[in-house]
Amino acid sequence: MGGAAEGRGAGAQSIDVGAISAEVAAGRRCWLMKSEPEVYGLDDLARDGQTSWEGVRNYQARNFMRDDMAVGDLVLFYHSNAQPPGVAGLARVCRAAYPDPAAFDPASPYFDPKSKPEAPAWLRVDLAYVGHLARFVPLEQLKADPELSGMLVIQRGQRLSVQPVSGPHLLRVLALSAG
DNA sequence: GCCAACGTTGGC
DNA sequence: GCCAACGTTGGC
User: Fold this and answer.
1) Model pLDDT for residues A121-141, shown as the tens digit of each residue
2) I need a surface site. Which of A3, A10, A109, A130 has the fewest CB within 10 A?
3) Which of A119, A115, A116, A177 shows the shortest CA–CA distance to A145?
4) What's the CA–C1' distance between A57 and B10, in Å?
């Protein structure tokens, strides 16, 4: 591997910013979701094409998925606990919230005995890969950008792994990644 | 590894 | 319902 693909996994795609802008202008909902790249990063999603977002164990994050997330929604894929942390790419919700089977599995690190199949406490969505940002946008750059003031991910102590993002903020991140 | 921020738990 | 203790997140 080399050239433009340096540092990206096999199958990495670029993002059609014009098409995304049109979607956002038409009212497409936007999100940011965090993953530790050593656990499951954007390269893994590019390889797999889609994935089930298991393991959300925070009520506010669950409620966002349950109440507000729909098929087609756009997702900034954020690498947390990374060096540096930041936005790596774009994904899309391809299945709306449904019970997270990991919560029922005693062998899973996400097992939660409070969650029963007849009354699931935890949900997951499925995400499809859209593309890698032209350039990774580190958290430091998000924090420094005046147009992104108010974005949740840059706020101190903000730990939510599923966050709503405004359309203009999502487009701004794409613009920053282009240069 | 440190630690600030936050969420959850459990005694009362 | 209060709140201290504890566990987790996640940047640094």
Assistant:
1) 999 999 999 999 999 999 999
2) A3
3) A177
4) 20
Q: Say if CB A84 and CB A138 are below 8 A apart.
A: yes
Q: How far in angstroms lies nucleotide C4's C1' from the CA of residue A13?
A: 50
Name the strand (E) or helix (H) holding A22.
helix A17-25
Residue-averaged pLDDT of chain A: 93
What pLDDT, in 10s, does the model give residues A78-93? 999 999 999 999 999 9
Residues in chain A: 179
Distance A20 CA to B8 C1' (A): 39
Q: Are A121 and A4 in contact (CB under 8 A)?
A: no
- Is A143 buried (19+), middle (13-18) or exposed (0-12) by CB count in 10 A? middle
Taking the CA of residue A6 and the C1' sugar atom of nucleotide C9, their distance in angstroms comes to 30
Nucleic strand C contact set for A 43-72 (CB, < 7 Å): 57
pTM higher than the cut 0.85 = yes
Task: Name the residue with the least CA to C1' distance from nucleotide B6.
Answer: A157
- CA A71 – CA A27 distance, rounded (Å): 13
Calculate Rg over the CA atoms of chain A.
16
Name the closest residue (CA) to the C1' of nucleotide C10: A81
